[in-house]
């Protein structure tokens, strides 16, 4: 058994301060004078805090606003922005989709439905291309899987509707979207082609 050793510590009783302030606490906090309460509140709220707030506002007034006037001004969009779906055409006017059904297979939400048939020239084209936009999660897998860049997610994000049925896109609606946004879609794909 080891012996217990007591070490005496030297207690310093000298103070570093030269001045002491004597504070007299109130005996009963409920008897605090209401006059002092109101004077303190007026000083803290009206004088001190109001001038601090006014100074903060005046520093922000002359700065450039951080917001835009949305319906009339639009912010910049990335070339990789994933908005409303569109089916593209070749410059000759023929639709690009070759009905490989890769987009239908890769869609995690199972929002795409494709039916196809063979044409007289032996090429396969879609007879039905439907997207349920209420199921779509805008992941962009369909665009990445497409070997001919037929299905893309365009730059349009303003496609709210009044009914659920208007968000069930058929082939004609998708082709119209592609015709409408072809210039922006082509420039976005060109800007992003190095990273794909």
UniProtKB/TrEMBL annotation:
Domain 4Fe-4S ferredoxin-type: 88-117, 127-156
Superkingdom, natural source: Eukaryota
Coiled coil: none
InterPro entries, alphabetized: 4Fe4S_Fe-S-bd (IPR017896), 4Fe4S_Fe_S_CS (IPR017900), NADH_quinone_OxRdtase_chainI (IPR010226)
GO process annotations (BP): mitochondrial electron transport, NADH to ubiquinone; mitochondrial respiratory chain complex I assembly
Cofactors (names): [4Fe-4S] cluster
PROSITE patterns attached to this UniProt entry: 4FE4S_FER_1, 4FE4S_FER_2
Entry keyword Transferase: no
Keyword vocabulary terms for this entry: 4Fe-4S, Iron, Iron-sulfur, Metal-binding, Translocase, Ubiquinone
Pfam families: Fer4_7
This protein's record includes keyword Nucleotidyltransferase: no
A GO CC annotation given for this chain: mitochondrion
GO molecular function, one term: NADH dehydrogenase activity
Family note: Belongs to the complex I 23 kDa subunit family.
UniProt function note: Core subunit of the mitochondrial membrane respiratory chain NADH dehydrogenase (Complex I) that is believed to belong to the minimal assembly required for catalysis. Complex I functions in the transfer of electrons from NADH to the respiratory chain. The immediate electron acceptor for the enzyme is believed to be ubiquinone.
Entry protein name: Mitochondrial NADH dehydrogenase (Ubiquinone) Fe-S protein 8
